[in-house]
Design brief:
The chain is of the alpha+beta class. It folds into three domains: 217 residues, no CATH class; 139 residues, Mannose-Binding Protein A, subunit A (Mannose-Binding Protein A, Chain A, Roll), CATH 3.10.100; 232 residues, no CATH class. Helix content is 20%, strand content 21%. Helix 7 runs antiparallel to helix 9 and helix 9 crosses helix 11. It is globular, with a radius of gyration of 30 Å. It starts with 18 loop residues before the first helix and ends with a helix. It comes from Dokdonella koreensis DS-123. This is Spore coat protein CotH.
């Protein structure tokens, strides 16, 4: 037996000594073991109702402001009111029975053990599935082999047909009213608070997993280790039934679904765009639909997390749903009625890009589909898929790599503040690089400095090329604390480099130790400044006050915070700027007057009646190509701060036009913001800001943006997803170590829209969001 696999095999009756004999019996249609019960959907396990927002509180389940929540109906509700009759026992609506190694039902107080009459399996009396109670771990191939071994060695609990469960089957065990582990330990003991394998494949040598910390569903590389729980039984009920009246019935569960998302029209054709709404708006909209007797019924509700997830297909199709029966479904998030018990301000959502299940902040925006309980599940045909015929080994993964280690020791162990540099010593080792020397370090950032994991600015005692990046004294350590993928800034910088922008910061990931303590994974990044290897424009001296010298170079930030000295600030009619270089100590009055006048004249040209004139309009003042490339990256990632907020960098070369860039500050981007429209992969964001809203009124500018996108999409934009996978595959283990000192993967941090429950889940959410965003922009530019 594979040493990673620890399942018991109990002999009963004639022993099947060969796996191949067992497979032959299956091929011949041999019925082995007992017939399972019809398969239905377990309730979620949640028995409380909640409000939302920053002050989430328990509310009555009949509260008119928060109506129709998960706990207000279903088996869990019936159990709490004493109306539910069970065959066995279990928390709330769950109903389990204990089964012996011989296959007999046992009393509820039976104990596990090695004997034939001891408890060895658990039957779910709702779904009819029978589960092994033994726990084991292994990679996906070992998990598949565990099923084959269990069957070939005589089966378990009087049954054959053991296999890895599907996602839908395994999710039935999740108790969304508890966590860590989110399961009933009285009937499914020794359940790891970790990923559990399913038998379903995903792309890029990954397979689907269910995380029993809280119930998240996402994918995991097949070479990784996860928990194994085998199942047998179940029914195949055939296809969903199109009722011909705008509804679809699931014969497995008896649920009746609205074919269309809320906001669509046209009967079963589902025309128009599904409406986006907050969780509370979704709950209240259901009540409105019932008052109107939508589709002839007045008992619609928002589906719970298991019900909605039962519609997801995970065969690589986008959207991950049967589009014949649910046409024009968006490949984005849809609300469920289930609050995240662990973080009450969030509710569970199903992402129909790939079929993942995560929790979202209730003030974020998602789509909605209605469901009603129509009839009991019907009998079906026995399931015959055992997953034992496909045991090929996946290709070997890229070997995981350790990150370089940056160790910093401050003088006398002094603490580091935001504003004043502290003397320190450093060593940087890894990737064949070794450097030791003196430096100064201080904090940086505004909202990021208030977070637990702090970002820093570093000034070396001499110019040094670090980890293959060009020499400089000036570096930044980005903490990326609010971005649990640690990769959003990386993705933005990668995009800028692929677009060939004038300069985009280079960066490398490093493990940082401060005064002997591990601080986590940081992004060692080039600081934005004028330099031959960075923003390559002339650096002005105080004496450069006549033409042509006075015309450049200037480095400026459009900064809504005005986080700079008054002597280097100026405003146009619409936006504020800070002059970064020349700085407040070297900026001559003539230079201040020149650049302030130039930028104001630029804005005046953009908003003039003849703004589109190629000679006298905005094109005479701005470097249009730089404005287009900067726009595409920031719009692609829907960067919150880049719409007239902060970190909007600009430069003016000597004799040149006003140019936009370089890129900076993308931790609150790509769906990582819980409020407003910024978490939604659909809709414009950057083009609604000052200057861009006017530029897009010019047909020539719009055409140039479209042409640039078309030239880049296939080779440079679509393949950004591969770059994310490459980073996660190579450094995933090292990145995971970051969450030792910062255990936030199951917590909500400002401004997270989603709690994915794991690093792999965060990566899946980012990729799913970006896939939807690329498709939407391609269709709407």
């Amino acid at each position: 037996m594979d040493p990673a696999i620890g399942f018991r095999a109990h002999a009963h009756g004639p022993r099947i000594a060969s796996r191949w004999l067992w497979l032959a019996l299956l091929a011949a249609g041999s019925a082995v073991g007992t017939q399972p019960l019809p398969q239905r959907i377990n309730d979620s396990g949640l028995d409380l109702c909640y409000s939302g927002g920053d002050f989430t509180a328990l509310v009555a389940c009949d509260d008119p402001d928060w109506p129709g929540q998960d706990a207000a109906s279903g088996r869990d509700h019936s159990a709490l009111t004493g109306a539910l009759v069970k065959e066995g026992a279990g928390r709330n609506g769950f109903d389990f029975s204990k089964v012996s190694a011989r296959g007999d039902l046992l009393p509820l107080d039976a104990a596990a053990g090695p004997g034939m009459d001891d408890w060895a399996c658990t039957r779910d009396n709702v779904t009819g599935l029978v589960w092994s109670i033994d726990g084991a771990t292994g990679d996906w191939l070992q998990a598949r082999r565990a099923a084959g071994i269990a069957n070939a060695d005589g089966g378990l609990c009087g049954r054959f047909g053991w296999r890895l469960p599907s996602v839908k089957e395994l999710q039935q065990l999740v108790d969304y009213g508890s966590s860590a582990p989110a399961i009933d330990p009285d009937f499914l003991p020794a359940t790891a608070t970790a990923f559990h394998w399913t038998g379903e494949r995903a792309a890029r040598e990954r397979s689907w997993v269910v995380n029993f910390h809280g119930g998240q569903v996402n994918t995991l590389a097949r070479h990784r280790t996860a928990a194994i729980r085998l199942v047998t039984g179940g029914e195949a009920f055939g296809a969903l039934i199109d009722n011909g009246n705008g509804t679809v019935t699931d014969p497995r569960s008896g649920l009746m679904w609205d074919q269309c998302s809320i906001g669509q029209f046209g009967g079963s054709q589902c025309q128009g765009m599904p409406q986006e709404m907050t969780w509370q708006q979704a709950l209240q909209r259901v009540q409105t639909q019932n008052q109107q007797a939508w589709r002839g019924h007045a008992d619609w509700r928002l589906p719970n997390v298991k019900e909605l997830a039962s519609l997801a297909r995970r065969d690589g199709a986008r959207p991950a749903i049967d589009t014949t029966r649910f046409p024009n479904t968006l490949d984005t998030a849809y609300w469920t009625s289930t609050t995240n018990w662990h973080v009450g301000r969030m509710a569970w959502a199903v992402f129909f890009g790939e079929g993942a299940v995560f929790a979202m902040d209730k003030t974020a925006l998602a789509r909605t589909r209605l469901v009603r309980t129509a009839s009991a599940a019907v009998e079906g045909r026995p399931r015959d898929a055992v997953f034992a015929d496909d045991l090929e080994a996946p290709p070997p993964p890229a070997p995981p790599q350790a990150l370089p280690v940056l160790a910093i020791t401050t003088a006398g162990g002094a603490p580091i503040g935001r504003d004043d540099y502290v003397d320190a010593q450093m060593t940087l080792e890894g990737d064949g690089f070794n450097h030791a020397g003196a430096l100064q370090i201080r904090g940086r950032g505004n909202s990021t400095w208030l977070m637990d994991k702090k970002p820093y600015r570093v000034k070396l005692d001499q110019k040094t090329p670090l980890l293959g990046m060009p020499s400089s004294k000036h570096w930044v350590l980005l903490a990326n604390h609010a971005d649990k993928t640690l990769l959003r800034n990386y993705v933005a910088f990668e995009a800028g480099q692929r677009l060939g922008m004038a300069w985009t910061p280079r960066s490398r990931f490093v493990d940082v130790q401060l005064n002997g303590a591990y601080l986590g994974v940081y992004q060692l990044t080039e600081q934005i400044r004028i330099d031959r290897d960075r923003v390559n424009i002339p650096e002005l001296t105080p004496g450069d006050i006549t033409r042509p010298a006075i015309s450049g170079g200037y480095l400026l930030e459009l900064d809504g915070r005005r986080d700079c000295a008054p002597s280097v600030q100026f405003d146009t009619l619409l936006v504020p700027f800070c002059i970064d270089n020349p700085d407040e100590e070297t900026l001559a009055p003539e230079q201040y007057a020149y650049i302030a006048s130039y930028v104001r004249n630029t804005e005046a040209a953009i908003y003039s009646p003849y703004f589109a004139d190629p000679v006298n309009g905005y094109a005479a003042w701005i470097d249009t190509a730089s404005f287009i490339d900067w726009y595409l990256v920031n719009e692609l990632l829907k960067n919150q701060d880049a719409r007239d907020g902060s970190s909007i960098w600009n430069f003016k070369d000597r004799g040149g036009k006003f140019a936009r860039g370089p890129l900076w500050d993308f931790d609150i981007a790509a769906g990582n913001l819980f409020h407003g429209v910024k978490n939604d992969p659909y809709g414009w964001w950057i083009r609604g800001g000052h200057w861009y809203v006017r530029l897009f009124e010019d047909p020539a500018f719009r055409a140039a943006v479209r042409a640039r996108w078309d030239a880049l999409k296939a080779s440079q934009i679509d393949t950004l997803l591969d770059a994310i996978d490459q980073q996660a595959d190579v450094y995933g283990t090292a990145f995971g170590a970051n969450f030792g000192p910062w255990p936030v993967l199951t917590e909500i941090l400002w401004p997270n829209a989603v709690v994915a429950g794991s690093y792999e889940g965060e990566i899946a959410y980012l990729k799913d969001w970006l896939t939807q965003r690329i498709a939407w922009m391609d269709a709407n530019l």
